[in-house]
């Protein structure tokens, strides 16, 4: 496994991040693996050298954090791994149980620490920006958590570039802890981030850790069409995916991936991840795995190096999209 710094920090992370939304409670989503079924994935990841694990408080309403924390305490050395989690989405329908107020950010962090079973969260991320809370209040709360030693680094996910730039500026002006990472929606089927967010991150030294790097499995090459809902359990129950990938031209990209993969003797998933890893600002795609072969394909992608002609062939069919995933 290869390791790189997370943005302009000294924090070393593996080129693949294991997304832990897939591990927790099947009562939350039918495709989620319960704790016993999740264990082989954490063990395999650690054995392969993956040291970067991403979860969120809302995944299985806290159970994902519990499962992730127990697994990493069993299989990994906590001083070597980077545990990332997120705050924003409501944990219940009661007051102050969501959003980015100082109250919820601090309480959310303390609850995540207990569920993970650690004293400090390595990377604490805003799951989304909160339109109902001044960003100054949120940034000051995050800075407080860093100063208290409850959080080491802070990051954000899926924001308009201008809002992210504003947050970076405010942090610098006030001397607050600054975002070091952006977890955004970026893959071969959705490249609108290349307009503003990717150049901003590259210029500002922000590490990019894309979510849905395989476009909800479409770039894995196993679906028969964009509207194929039968191939996987998640495909049949993930209504959100239909809001992200509904452009008929998207299938041309999938076919291009298959062609490049076939010519190389690689899997479509490995080629799609290798394309992401070829981008300067991308540190580690966040992959979800519910089959061990999914994880192995992602691990193998780190060694795949695409040629300029292959990258051109993969990118050629892309058609612009409306903004999705914010």
From TrEMBL:
SUPFAM superfamilies: NAD(P)-linked oxidoreductase. Residues 15-316 form the NADP-dependent oxidoreductase domain. Keywords: Oxidoreductase. It comes from the Bacteria. This is Aldo/keto reductase.
